Amino acid sequence: LLAPTEMSSPSLKTGAYILIGVGALTMLMGFLGCLGAVNEIRCLLGLYFTCLMIILLAQIAAALVIYFQKETLKVELSGIVVNLIENYDPLDEDKRNLQDAWDYVQTQIACCGWTGPKEWENNEILRNKSNTEYPCSCSNRSKDLMEGRGFCSLEDPLNGTATYADWPVHEQGCMDGVEEWLKDNLGIILGVCTGVAVIELLGMILSISLCKNIHSEDYTKVPKS
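Structure (tokenized):
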């Protein structure tokens, strides 16, 4: 079985930690922004502006890392998926969530394996059964997809043995399927990212405006000597 460290990679771990940090910072930022706006506290508004700027810069940095390190990330992700396929076991509750996530990917994208269904021949359980079973989430038959996870049996395996070519599964690998999905939805993804960036910029502008208004009000309240 795979150790927990084998199911991850330095790049993916770093990305996960960045997302956790950004999420925590966003919650803190929202609280500070509301508190500063309601009570007209300049220091909190300034902190709100700083947090927004850090988040925006982190998003830009993450986008640059993904763009320039995409080949490295692809290799690392490939290793993770191949290990998952080779050690896939429907009865292993410890890896249930990860396996269900991969089944969902194969079902939704209509793909099988990372580069193709042949990778599933290396699964220990399927090898022990002479490949007379196949992953249900790879199937191109609706009755198998109703199962959604685990392995389905061939109806009439030849001489009690089979290969991936005998399976009623999708021939496209999920790597190509994911890339096609990203290309098809690139406009939506860029639109959402741009919208989020615009909202963050508006928040920064509004926080600066409030700070200036508060400063002006404080200045007018100062008694002239």
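The first strand starts at residue 133 and ends at 135. Strands lie at 133-135, 151-153.
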